[in-house]
Amino acid sequence: MAAWLGLAVAAPLPAGRTRENILFVSGRVAPLLLCMAYVAFLARYWGSTPGGGFQSLEAVQILFAAPGKMLGAWTHFLAFDLLVGRWLVDDASSEGNSRLPLVIALPTTFLFGPLGLLLYLASRALLSAKRARAQ
Question: What does pTM read for this prediction?
Answer without folding.
Answer: 0.88
